[in-house]
Amino acid sequence: MSAAAAPNSAQQSKSTPSDFLRTIRGRPVTVRLTTGVDYRGVLVQIDGYMNVALEGCEEWNGTQLKAKYGDAFLRGNNVLYISATSGAK
User: Fold this and answer.
1) Which CATH number applies to 17-84?
2) 8 falls in which pLDDT band (50, 70, 90)?
3) 3-19 burial, b if ≥16 CB within 10 A, otherwise e?
4) Which of 69, 63, 56 is nearest to 27 (CA)?
5) Measured in whole angstroms, how far is the alpha carbon of residue 60 from the centre of its chain?
């Protein structure tokens, strides 16, 4: 087989974190902070510093709902990870 053979499926489906973040805009997400607290809401905006704007935001500590916020801004240096979630919060 020549070196010019078609790339395998793993090579064809390469995506970057930026690609992922573009696809989840407008969808429900969970944002975990470095403190261990989760914020769940609809991802409105994210910038290069990982600053996150959420709509319909809820603060969760483990399985317990702590607070509900309309809109929230989470500073990027506190973000541990962002995860896409199902439609139900």
Assistant:
1) 2.30.30.100
2) low
3) eeeeeeeeeeeeeeeee
4) 56
5) 15
Residue 85 has a CB neighbour count (10 Å cut-off) of 15
DSSP category for residue 11: H
Query: Are the beta carbons of 56 and 65 closer than 8 angstroms?
Result: no
Please report the DSSP string for 61-88 in residue order: ETTEEEEE-SEEEE-GGGEEEEEE--S-
- pLDDT tens track for 36-75: 999 999 999 999 899 999 999 999 999 999 999 999 999 9
Q: CA separation (Å) from 63 to 36, 53, 58, 60, 74?
A: 12, 22, 12, 7, 20
